[in-house]
DNA sequence: CCGATGATGAATTGGACC
DNA sequence: GGTCCAATTCATCATCGG
């Protein structure tokens, strides 16, 4: 697609472009937005790679690249030695002090934690603060994390400021526009940590950058490539490397074992779930968000933060069908009285693909397939496997068995003849994922595209199980806003549950996918209206208001945003949540917020 | 141009072991 | 604690033939 992307991915620092000016700019102006300014990229460990400046060690260079002055770096190294964490700590402290509007005595890089008084009265820059917040919407106590940040960064002289003022000051010193900090604090609430606030600000900037109705010169500069991700990662790393460590090590969301979420129909050990959903998260509408469970570190923490801190429900679809599919779901649906789709799908390879039973060797212990992906094994590979197995009468030696099994697991190969393995057919994909046969067949879609669309889809039985609680609640049918619809996994799930679809607004980039959904809609004789959009970014407030006006509001907002920058199979651009496609998650959040506010206004 | 094909690892987690 | 091993993973790209 975009050829230039690979160039952006480079870890090399391009000193010949205007980016250099921006870097120097950040050095001498205040420390501006670390994540959205400039185009430089830092490799994962913080080492600046390749282009070396004579006379400077890479240790110094990496701090120069971050925008610190040579003088400060030298000072920090002198005091702390060549320890990255300590030096960064010192530099950030110095930066906070330098950028502070008040006169500062020189301070040691490691400040003693200061005791913050709860006295919120201050004459300091009163007008400035008046613009920033309104007094009664905030309590005087802030959360532990925010507090500790200030203990680390803010000098004692500002301890007379309220918690909130200090947070604003801190973020302003980091280069975040005060207005945006203010908005973020209102939106995230008084309990929000600095990390949450910066996340929100970043998302807001990103959403604005993508708003097609904003003039170009108003948009913040964003880099959707890996550079932005790395800067962000670096920022998080900065936070995490601060002391006291325990406070910044926000607990990472862990995957449950077994991965059955809040319960599956097949396991007798149903997890007894009493979960509390924050009031803000209550509908209308109900919402349901999905993505890969095995995302890079911290991604689900971020996703959860943006979706009201709701705990993700991690479920492996191998408890529903014959193929694994480890996914996380965040939703505000009730979890009591779920029921599965009938008939129950086959749960083993044997049952799902009976013709393979005859050829299945005793030394292949698989009963479940691995995750169905977007590409299949090559003919050359199956040929190699045939030759390897053919060379022996009876059981091949362990060495060969291991090779064959490894490849079969990797590529989801099944036994279709004597010594013959093969990748799954597209219609087998459809069946395993719970779609009607030929759902993706014909109408101008290629075989390759079928694999791709199916590999990117929901497992219908899994999602339907979660959505089943809606059936009794909406006996007269539902209005559904379906984002990133793909081949219509959500629509198929609701339909198979017997839930009437009154109005479905479906947003899907791919034309072949839209055709598939449209075709399914007609074939199943739907009475309701199916409205197409091709781009989530075109769904702004005005358009949503129109849609909500015309259909009377949405009952369900459902969708799984692009996973390709999160998925383990991606060797090229696994850039995390800020990746080119996966960052569309923030549009899900944006649209959810818009729908909620429009609907609450109209009630 | 389109569609099919084959080559291309790393990140993460969990368990065994020391 | 640390270290190694095993398992898993909604993919991307250049290339080639029609």
Automatic annotation (TrEMBL):
Entry GO MF terms: DNA (cytosine-5-)-methyltransferase activity; DNA binding
Biological process annotations from GO: methylation
Compartment list: Nucleus
Acidic residues bias (residue ranges): 8-21
Keyword Methyltransferase annotated: yes
Entry keyword set: DNA-binding, Methyltransferase, Nucleus, Repeat, S-adenosyl-L-methionine, Transferase
A Gene Ontology term for the protein's cellular component: nucleus
Domain of life, source organism: Eukaryota
SUPFAM superfamilies noted in UniProt: S-adenosyl-L-methionine-dependent methyltransferases (SSF53335)
InterPro entries: C5-Methyltransferase, C5_MeTfrase, SAM-dependent_MTases_sf, SAM_MeTfrase_DRM, UBA
Region entry Disordered, spans: 1-21, 99-120
SAM-dependent MTase DRM-type domain ranges (all copies): 273-602
Active site: 563
Enzyme class: transferase
Domain UBA per the UniProt entry, residue ranges: 54-94
EC number per UniProt: 2.1.1.37
Annotated family: Belongs to the class I-like SAM-binding methyltransferase superfamily. C5-methyltransferase family.
The protein's name in its UniProt record: DNA (cytosine-5-)-methyltransferase
Organism: Solanum chilense
């Amino acid at each position: 697609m975009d050829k230039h992307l690979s160039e952006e991915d480079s870890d090399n620092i391009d000193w010949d472009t205007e980016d250099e000016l921006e870097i120097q700019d950040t050095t001498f102006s205040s420390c501006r937005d670390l994540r959205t300014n400039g185009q430089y990229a830092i490799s994962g460990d913080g080492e600046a790679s390749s282009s070396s400046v004579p006379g400077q060690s890479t240790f110094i260079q990496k701090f120069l690249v971050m925008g610190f002055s040579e003088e400060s770096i030298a000072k920090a190294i002198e005091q702390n030695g060549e320890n990255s964490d300590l030096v960064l700590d010192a530099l950030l402290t110095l930066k906070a002090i330098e950028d502070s509007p008040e006169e500062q005595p020189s301070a040691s890089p490691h400040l003693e934690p200061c005791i913050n008084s709860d006295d919120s009265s201050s004459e300091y820059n009163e007008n400035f603060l008046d613009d920033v917040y309104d007094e009664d919407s905030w309590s005087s106590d802030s959360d532990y994390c925010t507090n500790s940040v200030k203990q680390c960064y803010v000098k004692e002289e500002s301890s007379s400021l309220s918690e909130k003022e200090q947070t604003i000051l801190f973020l302003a010193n980091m280069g975040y526009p005060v207005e945006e900090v203010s908005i973020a604090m209102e939106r995230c609430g008084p309990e929000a940590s600095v990390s949450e606030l910066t996340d929100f600000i970043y998302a807001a900037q990103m959403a604005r950058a993508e708003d097609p109705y904003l003039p170009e010169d108003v948009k913040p500069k964003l880099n959707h490539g890996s550079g932005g991700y790395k800067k962000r990662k670096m920022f998080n790393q900065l936070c995490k490397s601060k002391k006291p460590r325990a406070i910044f090590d926000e607990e990472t969301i862990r995957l449950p074992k077994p991965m059955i979420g809040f319960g599956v129909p097949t396991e007798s050990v149903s997890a007894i779930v009493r979960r509390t959903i924050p009031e803000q998260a209550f509908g209308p509408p109900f919402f349901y968000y999905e993505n890969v469970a095995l995302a890079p570190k911290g991604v689900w923490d971020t996703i959860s933060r943006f979706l009201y801190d709701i705990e993700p429900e991690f479920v492996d679809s191998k408890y529903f069908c014959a193929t694994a599919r480890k996914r996380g779901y965040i939703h505000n649906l009730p979890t009591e009285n779920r029921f599965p789709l009938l008939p129950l799908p086959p749960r083993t390879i044997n049952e799902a693909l009976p013709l393979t039973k005859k050829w299945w060797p005793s030394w292949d212990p698989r009963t479940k397939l691995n995750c169905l992906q977007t590409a299949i094994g090559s003919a050359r590979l199956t040929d190699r496997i045939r030759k390897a197995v053919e060379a022996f009468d009876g059981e091949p030696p362990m060495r060969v068995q291991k090779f064959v099994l490894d490849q079969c697991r990797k590529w989801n190969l099944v036994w279709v003849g004597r010594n013959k393995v093969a990748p799954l057919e597209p219609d087998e994909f459809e069946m395993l994922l719970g779609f009607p046969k030929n759902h993706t067949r014909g109408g101008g879609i290629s075989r390759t595209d079928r694999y791709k669309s199916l590999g990117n889809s929901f497992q219908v039985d899994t999602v339907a199980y979660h959505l089943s609680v809606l059936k009794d609640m909406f006996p007269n049918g539902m209005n559904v806003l379906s984002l990133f619809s793909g081949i219509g996994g959500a629509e198929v799930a609701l339909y198979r549950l017997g839930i009437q679809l009154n109005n479905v607004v479906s947003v899907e980039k791919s034309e072949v996918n839209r055709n598939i959904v449209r075709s399914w809609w007609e074939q199943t004789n739907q009475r309701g209206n199916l409205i197409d959009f091709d781009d989530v970014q075109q769904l702004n407030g005005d358009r949503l208001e129109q849609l909500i006006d015309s259909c009377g509001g949405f009952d369900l907002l459902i969708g799984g945003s692009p996973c390709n920058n999160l998925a383990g199979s991606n060797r090229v651009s696994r850039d995390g949540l800020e990746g080119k496609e996966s960052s569309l998650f923030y549009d899900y959040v944006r649209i959810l917020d818009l729908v909620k506010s429009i609907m609450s206004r109209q009630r």
